[in-house]
């Protein structure tokens, strides 16, 4: 995508051309032209101003008369979803890639009703901050100085409620070769794919659910990958004097052992903390400790692995990069419809999510293509503009590219919805009558 100078260059034609370029990376994965066109329309719908972006609304936005085709795109149409994933990763690497890029792993919850959606059960999700009925998606984010996006995804399948129930798996189209994998194992699989694909990166970071996992750390070390992984306060650190809990080691740090550094910009400015670095019994591992300035009792711990010496400021920067995946989740759900889907089948989840990842990647690449936007020569302090965000670019796309009003099409969809709702209500009443007998 050619470099743009300011918001004035984000015309409808330029945005549509940018999306055409992004979709052109994956177009060959759709062999049938009608499936290819529908996938392109689906992504545009995901970026639109629709209130909800499910199969019905995406089909209506695309100008189709019924939702069947869009639902078939997710459920039954033949296309190479893993190839599209690989193309999205390559697209992100080409436009955002840097040798010092950071892979960021994390999971997020998608709250659901019912028990038929693949992987759904009552389980804890940080998204809701509680145990709730939900699916858990594992994601691999990519962050560099140019921007951030998602490059891979996996759906977590609980062992007892899913993998150990073949009939339930069969109903959700989970094939026999799909075995149980923990969340750290799913993250390792995605990192391994990024390595094999040659995605440029220099670091891996994740929260303590992954930092406390020994096999994941050993995998990264075997590939000589630098990491800054959060660990729990009870994590055992081995020094020359023996094994110690991370939080007990923090209590022994003298006042002079702390340095005040920023780990990057946040929504309210620089995120400044006090940091300390503790040596371990090996030259390649160190314990990084973060202390809140306003609440010194609030500590966070990171295990760092660097085969070559690295300055403290660099470790701090990577630790701060871990929060970029939270921004990706927020942008993905708010701007690219990550959580709008109503699919239930296991393959359909991957199809929907992969197309949504491409939509988010397009926004990130468009943002990266924007050069500094100069203020008007006579601008005062209050006239200055904050840099264009992914969120604002999506709003501009939705407003500039929305289709013209077609009243017969809108009214036809209203009639279709009401007919479907009538049939659904009748079916519900019939099931209730059978149950009450």
Walk me through the topology:
Elements: H1 12-24, H2 33-46, H3 55-61, H4 68-75, H5 81-96, E1 102-111, E2 121-125, E3 130-144, E4 147-155, H6 159-163, H7 166-171, H8 183-197, E5 203-206, H9 208-211, H10 214-222, E6 226-231, E7 236-239, E8 242-245, H11 246-250, E9 259-266, E10 269-279, E11 285-291, E12 299-305, H12 312-321, H13 324-335, H14 346-369, H15 390-400, H16 407-436
Parallel strand pairs: 1-5, 5-6
Antiparallel strand pairs: 1-3, 2-3, 3-4, 6-12, 7-8, 9-10, 10-11, 11-12
Helix pairs in contact: 1-14, 2-3, 2-14, 3-4, 5-14, 8-10, 14-15
Overview of the structural elements:
The protein is an alpha+beta fold and 437 residues long. The chain contains 16 helices and 12 strands. The strands form 2 sheets. Strands 1, 2, 3, 4, 5, 6, 9, 10, 11 and 12 form a 10-stranded mixed β-sheet that branches. The protein has a two-stranded antiparallel ribbon with strand order 7-8. 38% of the residues are buried. The model has no long low-confidence stretch (mean pLDDT 92).
């Amino acid at each position: 995508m050619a470099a743009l100078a300011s918001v004035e260059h984000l015309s409808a034609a330029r945005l549509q051309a940018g999306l055409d370029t992004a979709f052109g990376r994956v177009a060959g994965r759709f062999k049938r032209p009608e499936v290819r066109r529908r996938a392109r329309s689906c992504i545009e719908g995901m970026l639109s101003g629709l209130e909800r972006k499910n199969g019905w609304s995406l089909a209506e936005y695309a100008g189709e008369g019924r939702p069947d085709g869009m639902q078939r795109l997710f459920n039954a149409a033949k296309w190479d979803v893993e190839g599209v994933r690989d193309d999205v990763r390559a697209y992100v690497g080409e436009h955002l890639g840097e040798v010092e890029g950071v892979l960021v792993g994390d999971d997020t919850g998608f709250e659901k009703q019912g028990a038929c959606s693949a992987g759904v059960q009552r389980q804890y999700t940080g998204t809701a901050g509680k145990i709730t009925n939900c699916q858990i998606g594992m994601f691999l984010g990519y962050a560099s100085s140019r921007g951030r996006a998602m490059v891979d995804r996996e759906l977590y399948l609980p062992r007892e409620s899913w993998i150990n129930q073949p009939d339930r798996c069969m109903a959700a189209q989970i094939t026999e070769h799909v075995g149980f994998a923990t969340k750290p194992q799913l993250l390792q699989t995605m990192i391994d794919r990024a390595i094999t694909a040659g995605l440029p990166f220099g670091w891996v970071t994740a929260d303590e659910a992954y930092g406390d996992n020994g096999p994941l750390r050993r995998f990264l070390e075997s590939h000589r990958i630098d990491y800054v992984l959060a660990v729990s306060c009870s994590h055992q650190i081995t020094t020359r004097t023996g094994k110690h809990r991370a939080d007990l080691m923090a209590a022994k740090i003298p006042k002079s052992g702390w340095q005040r550094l920023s780990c990057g910009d946040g929504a309210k400015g620089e995120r400044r903390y006090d940091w300390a670095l503790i040596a371990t019994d090996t030259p390649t591992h160190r314990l990084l400790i973060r202390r809140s300035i306003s609440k010194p009792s609030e500590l966070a711990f990171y295990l760092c692995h660097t085969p070559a010496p690295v300055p403290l400021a660099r470790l701090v920067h990577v630790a701060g990069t871990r929060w970029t995946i939270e921004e990706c989740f927020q942008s993905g759900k708010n701007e690219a419809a990550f959580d709008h889907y109503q699919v239930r089948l296991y393959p359909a989840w991957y199809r929907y999510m992969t197309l949504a990842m491409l939509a988010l990647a397009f926004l990130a690449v468009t943002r990266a293509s924007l050069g500094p936007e100069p203020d008007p020569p006579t601008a005062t302090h209050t006239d200055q503009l904050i840099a264009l965000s992914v969120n604002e670019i999506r709003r501009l796309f939705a407003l500039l590219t929305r289709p013209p009003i077609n009243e017969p099409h809108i009214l036809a969809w209203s009639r279709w919805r009401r007919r479907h709702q009538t049939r659904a209500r009748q079916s519900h009443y019939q099931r209730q009558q059978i149950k009450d007998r």
